[in-house]
Amino acid sequence: MKQxxxxxxxxxxxxxxxxxxxxxxxxxEQAIFEAALEQLTSGGYARLTMxxxxxxxxxxxxxxxxxxxxxxxLALDALGSTLPPLTDVPDLGSVRAxxxxxxxxxxxxxxxxxxxxxxxxxxxxxxxxxxxxxxFVMARLVGPARRAGLEVxxxxxxxxxxxxxxxxxxxxxxxxxxxxxRTKFGAESVDAEFCDHLLEDVLLPLIRPQAG
Length: 212
Hints:
CATH class of the largest domain: Mainly Alpha
Number of strands: 0
Number of domains: 2
Shape: elongated
Strand content: under 5%
Distance between the termini: 115 Å
Number of helices: 10
Helix content: 55-70%
Structural class: mainly alpha
Mean pLDDT: 85
Order of helices and strands: HHHHHHHHHH
Largest sheet: none
């Protein structure tokens, strides 16, 4: 009797799909952070859920809770991994140019995907939150901004562009404070026009030497 080779037909069950490769280590962490940031930017902090992040990252919810006891801790870790850092400004020869670059780095950070997530978080989480959000903002935004600003002011003082009384932490806090206020409470975005007004109408009059 002639044997025939069986071929899959319309009536035969399809072969099971290949199992999806399970992410581990850094690949899983990156997938979790991307899922958390996407939920923050698309739905806000209120709609961010551990279940949703776990599903999008193709992992178990229990795995998330083992590392992040709360969704706020997860959100802050995700932001910390991707938010562009505020770095020191090189000597550009003028305090105006250096302050404008420093303000511009904040603008770039807030315009990034992580910055959009940061704005969503700041809009919905008060300064309480167990102090976690406050500590994050101080460590990643205010602290670096203050240090860089003080260095710019010191260089400006040595050039004679900045009065000596203006080289202090209170003055160095003015520009990040105004930018963060605009980010959290302002109806409009932190755009180039706002940054220029902040520099020309607030910072430079505040620090320039008095006539005579």
